[in-house]
Amino acid sequence: MEMKKVITGAAALSGLVALGQTANADEVVVKAGDTVSELALKYNTTIDAIQQANKLQDVNLIFVGQRLEVGSNVLADASQAAQQQAQPAQAAPQAQTQVQEAQPQQQTQQVQTTAPQTPSNDAEASAKAWIANVESGGSYTAQNGRYYGKYQLTNSYLGGDYSPENQERVADNYVANRYGSWQAAKSFWLANGWY
């Protein structure tokens, strides 16, 4: 990325920095270890936007040396494509979204019975539900070696109590102590593939 060496004024500096983040980040060459989710996080876009812009059949299958569009145009193009697809069959995607979001809201209400749903609580609930989905598909009985339950915590964290209530309580405490919020835990997961 090439930037001018002489910058006159703070406005010019902020303009170049803003351009530097998007103008030269339109395309990347996949390196060993890259994933679409990491690229989406790094370039402030979404997995779906990268998938649509690059016509990827499987977002889990990219190759070293492959060129992927990831810049700001990707997000705009994906948004426009999604709007065009949604217009003819607008009712079906909305119904599907409502079904997918209904489960996390019901689970959140069980855990946060005293807190009203505010935008920050909705964002937290969404991040928590996302982690549960990628870790276990939302199953309280999912097992993977020494990891157990909806949030795939180690058996030692759960202390032998595998009840849904204990899993929710322990997961909330774990995330609060380690990351401060479910949104921060999700960001860490996207960057590292675990939380």
Cα Rg: 20 Å
The helix content is: 55-70%
Sketch the major β-sheet. 3 strands, antiparallel
Count of DSSP helices?
9
Strands, count: 5
Q: What is the strand content? A: 5-15%
Provide the succession of SSEs. Answer: HEHHEHHHEEEHHH
User: What would you call the shape?
Assistant: elongated
Q: Stretches where pLDDT falls below 50 for ≥5 residues?
A: 1-25, 89-109, 111-119
Q: What's the arrangement of strands in the largest beta sheet?
A: 3-4-5
CA-to-CA gap between the ends?
A: 32 Å
Instruction: State mean pLDDT (0 to 100 scale).
Output: 74
Judged by helices, strands and strand pairing, the structural class is mainly alpha
Structural summary, described in words:
This protein has 9 helices and 5 strands, in the order αβααβαααβββααα. The protein has helices spanning 10-22, 36-42, 47-54, 72-86, 91-111, 119-136, 155-158, 164-178, 182-192; strands spanning 27-29, 67-69, 143-144, 147-148, 153-154. It has a 3-stranded antiparallel beta sheet. Strands 1-2 form a two-stranded antiparallel ribbon. The protein starts with 9 loop residues before the first helix and ends with a helix. 19% of the residues are buried.
